[in-house]
Amino acid sequence: MVRWSLRKTLLPLMLLCAHWTHAADTQAPFQVVSGDLPPYAIEGQPASPGVHVEVVEQMLQRAGTPLKVGFVPWARAITLAKLGPRTAILPLTRTPEREAHFKWLVKLDTQHFVFINRSGEPAVSSLEQARKLRIVVLRGSPNLAQLLNRDVPPSQIAEATRVEDMLRLVERGIVDALYGGNVINLEKIRASGRDPARFQVGMRVESADMWLAGSKDLSDSEQQAWQQAYDGMLRDGALARIYRGYHLPLP
Predict the structure, then answer these.
(1) Given 3.40.190.10, 2.40.110.10, 3.40.1190.10, 3.30.1330.30, which CATH number is that of 111-208?
(2) CB–CB of 24/202 below 8 Å?
(3) 185 and 200 in contact (C-beta within 8 Å)?
(4) How many other C-beta atoms are found inside a 10 Å radius of the C-beta of residue 201?
(5) Is the pLDDT of residue 225 over 60?
(6) Domains 31-110+209-245 and 111-208 share a fold
(7) Radius of gyration (Cα) for the chain, nearest Å?
(8) Residues in contact with 32: Cβ distance below 8 Å, sequence separation at least 6, in sequence order
(9) pTM score over 0.70
(10) Contact, 239 vs 83, CB < 8 A?
(11) pLDDT for 14 beyond 60
(12) Of 39, 71, 161, 196, whose CB count within 10 A is highest?
């Protein structure tokens, strides 16, 4: 009777411990987020979702973690990836200010930050000139800090939620220029049906790498698998084919 009682008592405990062990070994769901940043990530175009979206989705497929990228406002995407759990973001510019807050998973590209304003007005060709202008940047981007670090007065800088909003502010003369990635902004001008001749590109201020980054709870083994899948795409030509589809040079 005593032996039977002990077994009757221990069996639920053993089952409970097994449940806890299984729960500990089971990882939380994984997600990848982005904003509308053409041509790298294009919201509302499932047949042509952006070059980085296609690269990352194929990379994840090859690594055995198939997933579709979800679109949210850019500032929210950054918050989700920074706080987690198990959230990746693309394409995130790698900066010293962000370095400790994310796990840097796979380098995707390089972008250049420029001023863009209306044609027919003086192009923004110097920082001295920029300090006297009203400038808009994308909220959540590193562009605000880049301008502040170059002594552009905070009172001269506005922040917009979307690239589309930045372009409208420039078109309507509410701001004098926008500051941001050259490829993203020029592609948004073209894709939105605007005449590119109505805009002009000014000086390049800075360049930085763009990454698939994520919350720090993503594992080293996952990062290694994703990097190996990316390297395989580079070797077998899949990466080049995706970039050609967007008429972009291979990074």
Answers:
(1) 3.40.190.10
(2) no
(3) no
(4) 16
(5) yes
(6) yes
(7) 23
(8) 56, 60, 67, 68, 69, 70, 87, 88, 89, 90, 212
(9) yes
(10) no
(11) no
(12) 39
What is the C-alpha to C-alpha distance for residues 171 and 176, in angstroms, rounded to an integer?
9
Which residues face 177 on adjacent strands?
117, 135
Question: CA–CA separation, 49 vs 36, rounded Å?
Answer: 9
Show me where the domains of the chain are located.
31-110+209-245, 111-208
pLDDT digits 0-9 by tens, 19-60: 433 333 346 789 999 999 999 999 999 999 999 999 999 999
Task: Name which of 142, 164, 175 is nearest 75 in CA terms.
Answer: 142
Q: What are phi and psi of 70, to 5 degrees?
A: -100, 145
In which residue are the tokens 């073209």 written?
190
Q: Which CATH number is associated with domain 31-110+209-245? A: 3.40.190.10
Q: How many CB atoms lie within 10 A of CB 197?
A: 8
The DSSP result for the chain, as a single string, is: -HHHHHHHHHHHHHHHHHHHHHHHHSPPP-EEEE--BTTTB-TT-TTS--HHHHHHHHHHHHTT---PPEE--HHHHHHHHHH-SSEEEEEEEP-TTTGGGSEEEEEEEEEEEEEEEETTS-----HHHHTTS-EEEETTSTHHHHHHTTT--GGGEEEESSHHHHHHHHHTTSSSEEEEEHHHHHHHHHHTT--GGGEEEEEEEEEEEEEEEE-TTS-HHHHHHHHHHHHHHHHHTHHHHHHHHTT----
Query: What phi, psi does 114 have (nearest 5°)?
Result: -140, 165
Distance CA 98, CA 159 (A): 19
